[in-house]
Amino acid sequence: MDRSTAVWIRPIRRCGTTQGNAVITVRTSSGWPSAGRPLCRTRRARVKPTGPLRIVFAALGVTVTVALAPTASAAPAAPTAPPAHAAAAAACTGEYHGDARLGPKRLPKQWQAPVGPLLKNWNRTGGLSDAAYLKKYWEGPADGGGWKYPPNDGFAEKNGTIDKEPTKLRKGQRLDRFGSEYGGFLAPAGDSYAKRALPPQNLNTRDATAPCDYRVYKVAKPFWVWQGSIAPWFEQPGGGQQIKLDAVFLDPGEGQRLNVKWLLDRGYLAPAAQ
């Protein structure tokens, strides 16, 4: 036996529900201990070998110590799961092909509400290459240009007439929006992203509290808007419904801009659970 040799004794008892193992740590005259293993109790005891084992140890000139480990405690608590919005935020981050205009690199899965189900059947560039898509729908330099939006504020045409009409929103209606609170467009909550005919960039998370830049609201006080069907654009089919704010119906006052934030500040809209 060399200096690093350890002698192990088979399990000798049970400690609660945990099997206890007595480990003999062999120490040679030069003081090199072997590795031990945790056991059931926290005290150390000198063991006097007997019988053949005593003869073997005596011949080797070693001392024997039995180490007993503490009783097993309750299993550690499972790690706390991250908030749901954190997972969603991670899914709407990054830049697709290194270009923020093309939307987030990581999209939510279709089962990851609230945004995932809305992306069903959505094709980011509608089958066009990145370059062809940006050439068709982006105007100006990459870092200072903007999207070419459709005519008629995005409303579809039917029989040569813009498909929109004055509509009174009722208290309790749920509306949503992909974008900040400084915009003037909303939609009845739940339309798919493809039906909204929006550019992929609108999915980028800009605020961790609003993953995928998606926000849901509830009408707190009735007010009038334009509402109608959405024209195809951005290589998307459109066909959903959109709501456009207009100072003709609701005057924000001199120097004020009518947008979602104005409606929130004045109690016309309230944030709603997603």
TrEMBL record:
It comes from the Bacteria. Pfam families: TNT. The chain crosses the membrane at residues 51-69. One of its GO terms (molecular function) is NADP+ nucleosidase activity. The keyword Transmembrane helix applies. Keywords: Membrane, Transmembrane, Transmembrane helix. Residues 169-270 form the TNT domain. The keyword Membrane applies. PANTHER family: TNT DOMAIN-CONTAINING PROTEIN. This is Glycohydrolase toxin TNT-related protein. It comes from Streptomyces boluensis.
